[in-house]
Predict the structure.
Amino acid sequence: MKNNKFSNLAAAAQRNTAEATTKKSETGEASQPATNNIVPAAKAPTSQTAADKPEAETRPRTGRPAGKRSNAGFKQVTAYIDLTTYKKVKVRLFEQDEKQEFSELVDTLLKDWLLK
């Protein structure tokens, strides 16, 4: 049967696992399990510096676009509004051809009020 190229790795892993099992010391206390002291190979130095590397390609973000919550230009606030008024406003906003969010309407009304 042909040797699998990973058979040596599997055997080494089994040996390391067997060595790592907890052994009792002479005092009867369990010793710490052995750690795997394999050091990864060092990467070969490259001739490019950070300034020489081309900039990463900018890809368009996937998923939902960033909203107002993550935009520093907006602040979430709470206001108490009469329930019947709120319901009527939501219905009228829904019926409009140009859809407008409730927060946009409130923002517009507050800006108009400040200009007076």
In short: The longest helix spans residues 7-20. The chain has three helices and no strands. The two ends are 90 Å apart (CA to CA). The mean pLDDT is 76.
